[in-house]
Amino acid sequence: MTVDNMNKCQESCGFISSSKICKICIKKNEYEKRQKIKMSKLIQINKSKCWKCKKRISISAIQCRCKYYFCDKHRYPEEHSCLINYKKLGLALLKKNVIKCQSDKFEKI
């Protein structure tokens, strides 16, 4: 990169970048967007319809850990873009319930 290609960040952070916005400001903006999404969580009023496709649900309605009801097609977290990190929850549960397998020491005769 040459000095001619370098510009100051438009977010007025003072860093120099080859693009209009520096990487630090891009990460900061993405973090703020994720926080806004978490804070502005909508409430499902009609629990007889799927949250994703608005299809009518009968008795087979499935409530996810994100507190929304889904049809059979959208019941899996990958299908309805669930915000809950199931991998992290599973690892925490395993760490909590792990049993140490350690043998007792025997005295030599």
Description:
The chain is α+β, with helices and mostly antiparallel strands. It folds into 2 domains: 1-40, no CATH class; 44-95, Zf-an1 domain (Irregular). The chain is 27% helix and 7% strand. It contains 2 helices and 4 strands; from the N terminus they run E-E-H-E-E-H. The chain has helices at residues 23-39, 86-97; strands at 7-8, 16-17, 62-63, 69-70. The strands form 2 sheets. The chain has a two-stranded antiparallel ribbon. The protein is flat, with a radius of gyration of 25 Å.
Topology diagram in text:
Blueprint: E1 7-8, E2 16-17, H1 23-39, E3 62-63, E4 69-70, H2 86-97
Antiparallel strand pairs: 1-2, 3-4
In a few lines, what is going on in this structure?
The chain contains two helices and four strands, in the order ββαββα. With 109 residues, the chain is an alpha+beta fold. The longest helix has 17 residues, at 23-39.
List keywords for this structure.
two-stranded antiparallel sheet, 109 residues, 7% strand, alpha+beta, 27% helix, two-stranded antiparallel ribbon, Zf-an1 domain, 2 domains, 4 strands
Order of helices and strands: EEHEEH
Number of domains: 2
Termini distance? 75 Å
Largest beta sheet, briefly? 2 strands, antiparallel
Radius of gyration: 25 Å
Shape: flat
The CATH superfamily of the largest domain is identified as AN1-like Zinc finger
What's the CATH class label of the largest domain?
Few Secondary Structures
**Lateral strand order in the biggest sheet:** 1-2
Mean of residue pLDDT values: 80
Number of strands: 4
